[in-house]
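Saturday, quiet lab. Running sequence design on the structure tokens for the scaffold JK sent over.
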């Protein structure tokens, strides 16, 4: 990560934290009263092929023991009504501003993968994770909806894992590597603006 990219990340994260502090606090109180504890969902993701970190999100699904893996159709019934709204506007990802400040993530980069896929596909993620993981990125913008469509048809955890590993991992990696070759601040800003427009629509 370049010095300029890190400065942009820190500056933008601080501005957004200040702007969103009060609305986010009210949202957390609302979720606590309506959905109960826990308000946050914390899961390990990979920052590099060997280094993990804890990614923070607002909880959008009902709590169950032993929950793990990618979300597919097998977990659709667990998404709460409020969770659907949070996901639609990506408000569940606001806590990731903390991950950006800590340096675990950037605003733009490949979505941070689960450890199990990094270990299963070391050649792919050895290249992809040379870029700092991001909240948004080329794969997020240009493949996420297709990924959701593919995974929504999966009725078991095994089917979800198979489709994700065969269809999603390689396609997302191709887009992430295109980003890595072309990365610059102008591209990052363009991808962030396109993300805002996509969420607003």
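Result came back. Writing it out in full:
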């Amino acid at each position: 990560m370049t010095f300029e990219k890190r400065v942009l990340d820190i500056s933008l994260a601080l501005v957004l934290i200040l702007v969103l502090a009060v609305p986010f606090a009210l949202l957390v109180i609302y979720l606590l009263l309506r959905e109960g504890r826990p308000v946050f969902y914390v899961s390990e993701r990979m920052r590099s092929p060997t280094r993990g970190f804890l990614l923070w999100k607002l909880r959008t699904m009902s709590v169950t023991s032993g929950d793990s893996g990618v979300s597919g159709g097998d977990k659709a019934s667990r998404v709460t009504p409020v969770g659907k709204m949070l996901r639609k506007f990506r408000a569940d990802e606001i806590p990731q501003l903390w991950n950006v400040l800590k340096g675990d993530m950037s605003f733009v980069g490949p979505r941070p993968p689960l450890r199990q896929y990094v270990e299963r596909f070391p050649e792919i993620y050895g290249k992809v994770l040379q870029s700092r993981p991001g909240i948004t990125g080329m794969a997020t913008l240009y493949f996420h909806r297709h990924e959701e469509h593919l995974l929504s048809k999966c009725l078991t955890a095994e089917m979800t894992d198979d489709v994700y590993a065969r269809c999603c991992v390689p396609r997302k990696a191709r887009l992430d590597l295109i980003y890595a070759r072309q990365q610059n601040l102008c591209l990052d800003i363009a991808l962030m603006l396109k993300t805002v427009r996509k969420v607003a629509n």
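Notes for JK: The helical segments are 3-35, 81-88, 96-102, 115-120, 122-128, 138-152, 157-182, 185-200. The first strand starts at residue 40 and ends at 46. Ask whether to fix the surface positions before the next round.
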